[in-house]
Amino acid sequence: MKFDVVILGGGFAGAYCARTLARSLGAAARSRVALVAEENVLTFQPMLPEVAGSSLSPLDVVNPLRDFARGVNVLRGTVRVVDWEKKVVQLDAGRFTPDHEIEFDHLVVALGSVVDFSQVPGMVQHGLPMKTVAHALRLRSAVINRLEEANLTADREARRRLLTIVVVGGGYTGVETAGQLSDFLRDVQPLYENLRGEKARVVLVHSRGHLLAEIGETLGDYAQRVLERRGTEVIVNARVIEVGPNEAVLSNGTMIATHTVISTVGNTTHPVVVDLARQLGLELSKGRVPTEPTMRVPGQTKLWAIGDCAAVPLDGGVSPPTAQLALRQGTQLARNLVRAFRGEALRPFAFRNLGQLATVGQHAAVAEIGGWHFSGFFAWWMWRTIYLAKLPGLSRKLRVVVDWTLELFFSRDVSLLLPPPEEPLRPVHYRQGEMLLKPGTPARHFIAIQRGSVTVANVGSSVELGAGELLDARYQDATGRWTCSAISSEPTDVLIVRGAALELLRYRLPPAAATTTPI
Predict the structure, then answer these.
(1) Which of 342, 371, 393 is the last residue of a domain?
(2) Cα separations in angstroms, 338 against 24, 68, 129, 350, 393
(3) Do 317 and 440 lie in a common domain?
(4) Neighbours of 236 (CB within 10 A)
(5) Range of the domain at 452
(6) Three-class secondary structure assignment of 423-464
(7) Are both 214 and 129 inside the same structural domain?
(8) SS3 of residue 42 by DSSP
(9) What is the mean pLDDT of each run of 10 residues along the chain (519 residues)?
(10) Which of 56, 156, 213, 240 has the largest CB neighbor count within 10 A?
(11) Separation of alpha carbons 303 and 158, rounded Å
């Protein structure tokens, strides 16, 4: 496969670039332009919190790229590496298809960022991201699963943990997710007979002093007041520094008992972008590719960067990583590419910020439009009107209008679309002093220690287990219950082995031949 232009990334920047090129080049675009995307849809991310809060269907907020960018060659796959010297992109096409090599003349990098939770111990194992439709669906299912479990248990402490949700990050996604989940829980809790009178908690944790820094302190403080008035707890000037299976630990010493932590922060540079910068000797600007005002990478004539992964100059600084800027960069770059083909002068990217909007719950929002500040119901009406107009595709607009209308008259849907995942191998992080298991409880799994250490205590004796050792059938009785307690001696990462993997391990390692060899 060989194309004049290969666009890497199917987000707003890449999709709008491909769409504009298709319209500019006509029938020739099919053979000249390729759009490479990991998913075959364009996701309208501003509406993802409404999917998580069961206000919208997941199909309402996506557009098939083959329809949206009709006229270009859409290739779904994961970019493994870009070989700049050979002008080749290596693409992982999937399980049953060999890797493909795609040759290019011009390369447009629009890969955005990737989720990175590694800076917070335990966040990788226990944190739920909020970046794609799949993430929103998993979050929705996780919250409903917590409600179902809380409805069954009579243990008040366990019920409080199940009904507590922690949202990390006070930007747009964090604020809107917290508001949606708070409304969702308040709306559906009466459907659960055993939860009547119980208080569900949504806690929003933000590292700065004010929410929504992009809009300003006044509206950020208003958003906080609205969230708190609706029952959401807001903690500012604090960070989540550790996450376990049963709690989140904050930098101010607060410990929140919960099984559900959602992180809307923790993004990092795409590894393909890092590798490409290394090949070219480029120094990234806070993890983003520096560009000229025309969005061309300095020193290169056929390399371009747009969207969240690009530091495009704008008004004396660089463009912030927002959807409205990404789509305009994609459109402008497509026109510059056409000019480059014709040998015409390129035009610099320019943008006049028309405003910012964010919802904070049902019938409430904050907005900054043309320097004017709005809040409350009018801002919420503007948010819905403007974002409905921006939503690509007439069919999607009609679906969203129908869903929003039904929401006014009926309670939100608690149908469980995704069952609890079968996790034969599940990584878990425990903070120091946390109990992994109690004697007498059913042993439904083995525990393999990856990092750290665990004190295993039986009547009158104890042993210290370290990395590579197992809590297995040796510590269980004939009825399949644990005969000991186990407490983490330090921050510890373990691997929970259950299901098919557990049966395989039982077969390979029967009680009489148990081993402490690393697995």
Answers:
(1) 342
(2) 8, 20, 38, 18, 25
(3) no
(4) 16
(5) 425-513
(6) CCEEEEEECCCCEEECCCCECCCEEEEEECEEEEEECCEEEE
(7) yes
(8) strand
(9) 95 96 93 95 92 91 94 94 95 85 96 92 92 93 95 94 96 93 93 91 95 85 90 95 94 95 93 95 94 96 96 90 91 96 94 82 83 85 89 88 86 79 80 91 89 89 91 86 92 86 60 38
(10) 240
(11) 54
Count of other CB atoms within 10 angstroms of residue 413: 16
296 CB contacts (<8 Å, ≥6 apart)?
303, 304, 336, 346
Q: Which of 293, 316, 342 is the last residue of a domain?
A: 342
Residue 160 in any domain: the answer is: yes
Does 96 lie in the same domain as 240? no
**Contact (Cβ atoms closer than 8 angstroms) between residue 492 and residue 455:** no
Positive or negative: CA dihedral 354, 347, 74, 306: negative
Tokens 């447009």, residue located: 108
Same domain, 325 and 177: no
The CATH number of residue 17's host domain is: 3.50.50.60
Cβ–Cβ under 8 Å, residues 475 and 482: yes
Strand pairing category for 453-458 and 446-451: unpaired
Q: Where are the beta strands (DSSP E) in 24-175?
A: 33-37, 41-43, 62-64, 73-76, 78-83, 88-92, 100-109, 113-115, 127-129, 164-168
CB atoms within 10 A of CB 302: 16
Same domain, 102 and 154: no
**CB 110 within 8 Å of CB 17:** yes
| CATH number reported for the structural domain that contains residue 152 in this entry | 3.50.50.100
Same domain, yes or no: 251 and 377: yes
| 22/97 same-domain check | yes
For residue 185, which of 167, 170, 212, 173 has the smallest C-alpha distance? 167
Question: What is the rounded CA–CA span in Å between residue 222 and residue 324?
Answer: 24
Contact 91, 79 (CB under 8 A): yes
Residues 163 and 233 in one domain: yes
CATH number at residue 502: 2.60.120.10
Q: Tell me the three state secondary structure of residue 154.
A: coil
Task: Name the pTM for this structure.
Answer: 0.85
The string over 187-197, giving b where at least 16 C-beta atoms fall within 10 Å of a residue's C-beta and e elsewhere, is bbbeeeeebee
CA distance 516 to 470: 6
DSSP 449-504: EEESEEEEEETTEEEEEETT-EE-GGGB-TTSBB-SEEEESSSEEEEEE-HHHHHH
Give the count of domains, the chain. 3
- Virtual torsion, Cα 246, 250, 256, 261, nearest 10 deg: -60
Q: Copy the structure tokens of residue 215.
A: 């809009």
